[in-house]
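## tool: complex_structure
## caller: assistant
## args:
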Amino acid sequence: MEVRVRAPGKIILAGEHAVVHGSTAVAASVGLYTYVSLRFPTPSDNDDSLNLQLKDMALEFSWPVDRIKEALPEFGSSLSPTPTSCSIKSMKSIAALVEEQNIPEAKVELAAGVSAFLWLYSCIQGFKPVTVVVNSELPLGSGLGSSAAFCVALSAALLAFSDSVSLDMSQQGWSVFGESELELVNKWAFEGEKIIHGKPSGLDNTVSTYGNIIKFKSGALTRLKSNMTLKMLITNTKVGRNTKALVAGVSERTLRHPDAMSLVFNAVDSISKELSAIIQSPAPDDLSITEKEEKMEELMEMNQGLLQCMGVSHASIETVLRTTLKYKLASKLTGAGGGGCVLTLLPTLLSETVVNKVIAELESCGFQCLTAAIGGKGVEVCFGGSS
Amino acid sequence: MEVRVRAPGKIILAGEHAVVHGSTAVAASVGLYTYVSLRFPTPSDNDDSLNLQLKDMALEFSWPVDRIKEALPEFGSSLSPTPTSCSIKSMKSIAALVEEQNIPEAKVELAAGVSAFLWLYSCIQGFKPVTVVVNSELPLGSGLGSSAAFCVALSAALLAFSDSVSLDMSQQGWSVFGESELELVNKWAFEGEKIIHGKPSGLDNTVSTYGNIIKFKSGALTRLKSNMTLKMLITNTKVGRNTKALVAGVSERTLRHPDAMSLVFNAVDSISKELSAIIQSPAPDDLSITEKEEKMEELMEMNQGLLQCMGVSHASIETVLRTTLKYKLASKLTGAGGGGCVLTLLPTLLSETVVNKVIAELESCGFQCLTAAIGGKGVEVCFGGSS
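## result:
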């Protein structure tokens, strides 16, 4: 018995940083996935363990199911039908289970991910022996929501075989969850994100769960109905960032220049709203797809300027901007800035030759380039064989 | 009898483009000069011509004084004590005089400069034979106010020997003009600028005449009393720009995104005001020079971001930004953008070694680098030998 789930990453189209200061932001799912497959052993397998394989890191962890039962006696008999937060007591027991696996101390995030895995597994599946295989197209820690995609895919895969969810297992290929199932997946994923990040905004798991494009302001999320397909080049500068320090830097600059910065945040709010309006405007309306793309490019360029005004750019981001500008393509950083990823809109009519040229030039600078559609479906499930 | 005059160029410290939309801007003189020397022939020289030597272009023009008298009969007998605009009739006669000198048709700006020269000479000096030598440290047409510096230096040199101005010719070295003389120089230079540019703002000639730092908003100029010496690296990208097209581009973007752009212009206004306040704050106050420089750097970075938001950056500007960012130096474009010049603040405590490294790296990209103090004196005069 096997289930395979995929959950997309996210990008921020407009409004990062300014959203912390009350502006509207717009996020979208990106067609790069984290895959989680779940396989229950048959009695003849004679396997009584919980196995976690992280393919991208070539890592494998294994616990005898009885060991988990012993460490977390509060679970197993009564599964949690509604998502709950991990108590400090459970967290300590989980930490002990993680420690037994000899994860290098430097890999704090990996340990946090494994902890989230153990929590979601215990809550949703109890202590059934199972093998979980994870692989991902999302670069880790680069602001594309890789941890949320992991939590969403994992929650969905675990829920697929739980009593909380009823799915049509006879369907072929990837299929979406129902509205109530999605809500459950999203809530569980959020609990996982809390274990990994402490105080996540909930945006990443929501985008990964529901897909499409989401507007958010002051903690409230609104799902937009997008009427256009957008293709983006995502350039991972591979420059590590300290998100907390970048957010604090913007706040400090705001204290030093309150008038100018408040105007900048309001300008971002206006840009996010314009962007949302374009995305939602009816498909065949007075604006052609090219006109819409040009408007979006202009708004991206404007937002990038405002992000530079906030002081969150970086030499590596400037290099990407300068390179794509040569090809008359609009780019902006996405997420925290200070490195991380840069978005470049690839217009529908842009030739593949130009795209390849830009990618070659960016890769020659040592960057990693990915192309993906944005605003596509959220988490999807596939039963049976591989897909 | 000889007089030598030097007039500085200008840079815009903050507010370019936004000033067109009502924001405050701040300009400063830059310690790069256009030199004009005037030598009257002695009777034994037997020279009855007006000679203009443009040293930087290795060009020389010469007219018999009688030829000018014939072409411009309205001048000579009564010199104009107050600056007046060139009439269409005079402009036509001057055009004929310029045409006789076989200036290549492509050099429209050169012809305009020579026209301004003939106008100022005829108005201020009548038809005395004289040799005028011009050389300049300012790159032409790169937004550093080279034409205004030419008009200011020329007007000042011509006025130095006129009845309108009384100067102490016994002074050694460079000396400044009196307040009323400066006013006259500035007005004449503005008339010259009108011949070259059509509708100049008057900012460039005012900065070149008075020096120091000037705040301007909605056409009104305020001279600031600066209390700090600032050193700038000026990088000439050598990318030619179309100022009119850039200004029009910002206006078009403003029509497309009125809300966002109006907030951006207001943010620039706030930045210009903050900058003016720092510049004017008393010398030994609670802020050390380093703290002031850091504040200015932050404001320059913010202004640059807002200029990028307006869409007036350019790949060459990005290259300069990226390069100086590596050395933790703040830069912004100055003037119209789309190429042209980029300013980089050189903090007082920055080592010469680092400055040389940055310059070497920028020059290896094909850019021209100049370093200069900003906010220094305006037009100055020197009698007798060279200085």
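## assistant note: The domain at 230-374 of chain B is CATH 3.30.70.890 (Alpha-Beta Plaits). Chain B has two domains: 2-224+376-383, 230-374. Handing back to user.
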